[in-house]
Design brief:
This protein has 572 residues and is α+β, with helices and mostly antiparallel strands. The protein is built from 13 helices and 24 strands. The chain has an eight-stranded mixed β-sheet, sandwiched between helices. The chain has a five-stranded antiparallel β-sheet with strand order 23-18-22-19-24. Helix 2 packs antiparallel against helix 5 and helix 5 packs across helix 10. It is globular, with a radius of gyration of 25 Å. The structure holds zinc ion (ZN). The site of zinc ion has 4 residues, from loops.
Length: 572
């Protein structure tokens, strides 16, 4: 409920009673009995955007702790109009802006339904919002602030498809930020700077009903991954075990030596030629986990089992709900042990970025690696017997009658499946650095690289504009070898550079991007030409150089009084 809307509520409930205390009790009672749209229809259909809006509106009306904000809108496309993207702010005192947040307790961001056909994530997020605002999870608000974006991809939800209205996979869009949904996530993240985040998804029909993955890009302090796994994942696993729900850390099967996590459209013939490995979730920073983790955030992905049919919606929503609840409880319980290191690591990043030194490496390329101490991993999986029933007949049929899909009810979830143990020898739990550069003080970006500049702004990165021509010493990269990628969204197949210390003229209208800001580790990853995660991977940014050219972006490693003013500062 928004501050100042109390009168509106009082009028709304005037018939129930007049005493303020009685009203408060009435609000709480009423809120507690509000059902999510899925609960209301007994999980007979997916909750679509209009119902999300009605549900949040009702809850907002009766809950003092909840404030709902519109933080973006999807693009209008043929067959589906623009839809608002909601942020639910849940705090003990009904805070409505980041400035008023009690930062002595952790702030937590939960995003759901980036993939539109992973519906149970959204259904569980809606239940979680209700339970925090008015149900059994309310006590958590005494110890943490919660931000929930329950429906990041309304178009995908509507048509029950993975991608958004621009046909983009939003969870591969967190570097280029073409989609409104991913941009909104980053706008919210940068405005509120939560210390812990969770991105909710569904996977296939897996033995592990709930999986959590932690950060794995090695520019994120190792202590974050270690703490996430040792403390948070363990606590969630214990809590789920008490409910007899199988938990396993989120692992990904991938081809050895091939990076399939970029989202690039790699032709099928280039896949499936190699041996596969099992690894932790991707090192890419284009997803909803590492892209927030790179700010030294305790960031997670949750993947719950799903057969993606309505018959199992209740069951899969219950796994999401329990996974989310136990994750939130673990984060709240360990609040101080999260707040202190995250704040320290963010401060250290800022401090280091303000001083140039060779001992401040940024890892531009990395590879998954084996651990000599742990050479294999044992995982459980379902094996479907060949004679698995196709379904149960809903109508009387006899030999010779035609049988249609509509005559069959799906067989119950996982029925008939055996659990097998699989020993995986190609176990690559480590990530090793393959190329580092010292973090510079900042970068000069030419004024005509408009798309790249707009991208930095969408990340909430502060940019300075040169107000006059200015000569300065820089490190420039001379490109000695270049073989561009033949596929968009991938780094050049080969790029070799030589660093040159030269004096250059930054023109009036060029830009300066200081690394001494919260995105201290992200900025070099976006702007370095040899970064496997960089803007150079995407054709729209037009950054792939030619042989013998100087790369367009220059590194500044010496302090100087630059003639710059903030560029589009009014956006933040
Ligand atoms: Zn997903």
């Amino acid at each position: 409920m928004r501050a100042g809307s109390y009168t509106r509520c009082r009028r709304g409930l005037i018939l129930i009673g007049t005493a303020a205390s009685a009203l408060l009790v009435a609000f709480v009672l009423e809120a507690a009995t509000i059902k999510t749209p899925a609960e209301e229809c007994l999980y007979a259909r997916y909750t679509l955007h209009e119902e999300v809006a009605r549900f949040l509106g009702s809850l907002d009306f009766v809950s003092r702790e909840l404030v709902v904000r519109v933080v973006g809108a999807t693009k209008e496309v043929r067959g589906y109009p623009s839809r608002d993207l909601y942020l639910c702010i849940l705090t003990e005192t009904g805070v409505s802006s980041p400035e008023k947040l009690d930062r002595s307790r952790p702030t937590v961001l939960i995003i759901a339904s980036q993939h539109g056909n992973e519906q149970s994530a959204k259904e569980a997020a809606l239940g979680f919002i209700r339970d925090l605002a008015a149900g059994g999870l309310r006590p958590l608000l005494r110890r943490a602030n919660f931000l929930v974006m329950p429906q990041c991809n309304p178009h995908g939800n509507h048509f029950d498809r993975r991608s958004n209205e621009q046909d983009l996979d939003m969870n591969r869009d967190h570097v280029k930020l073409e989609s409104e949904g991913a941009s909104a996530v980053h706008r919210v993240f940068r405005a509120w700077m939560p210390e812990a985040t969770l991105d909710m998804h569904e996977k296939g029909d897996d033995y592990y009903r709930v999986s959590l993955g932690c950060v794995s890009n090695i520019n994120i302090a190792p202590v974050i991954q270690e703490f996430s796994r040792r403390v948070i994942l363990s606590e969630v696993e214990r809590a789920l075990a008490a409910k007899n729900i199988a938990f396993g850390e989120y692992l990904v099967r991938d081809e050895i030596g091939l990076n399939t996590s970029t989202g690039a459209a790699i032709p099928r013939e280039r896949l499936r030629e190699r041996e596969t490995m099992l690894r932790y979730s991707t090192v890419e920073i284009n997803d909803g986990r590492n892209s927030l983790g790179i700010y030294q955030t305790l960031s997670f992905i949750m993947e719950c089992a799903s057969r993606r049919d309505l018959q199992t919606l209740r069951e899969r929503t219950s796994w999401q709900s329990l996974g989310l609840k136990y994750w939130a409880e673990a984060v709240v319980k360990n609040g101080d042990d999260i707040l202190t290191p995250v704040n320290r690591l963010r401060r250290e990043d800022l401090d280091r970025a303000g001083v140039y030194g060779e001992d401040d490496p940024i890892h531009l390329r990395m590879e998954y690696a084996r651990d000599p101490a742990i050479t294999k991993v044992v995982r459980k999986k379902f094996e479907t017997p060949p004679a698995q029933p196709r379904g149960i007949l809903k109508v009387d049929k006899k030999a010779g009658d035609a049988l249609t899909a509509a005559d069959l009810e799906p067989y119950r979830f996982s029925a008939g499946q055996r659990v097998l143990e699989e020993v995986v020898e190609n176990w690559f739990p480590l990530v090793e650095s393959r190329l580092t550069v010292p973090r510079p003080l900042g970068y000069v970006v030419p004024g005509d690289k408009t798309e790249a500049l707009e991208n930095l702004l969408r990340h909430g990165i502060s940019v300075g504009l040169f107000t006059r021509d200015f000569s300065l010493p820089v490190e420039a990269y001379a490109v000695t070898e270049i073989e561009p990628s033949d596929i968009d969204w991938l780094p050049p197949k080969l790029i070799e550079v030589e660093k040159r210390n030269i004096s250059v003229l930054a023109r009036k209208g060029d830009f300066y991007v200081s690394c001494a800001q919260p995105a201290a580790s992200l900025i070099p990853l976006l702007l370095e030409p040899q970064s496997q995660f960089g803007l150079i991977c995407y054709r729209r940014f037009d950054l792939v150089p030619k042989k013998d050219e100087l790369f367009a972006v220059w590194r500044v490693v010496e302090h100087a009084e630059l003639p710059i003013v903030p560029y589009k500062d009014f956006l933040s």
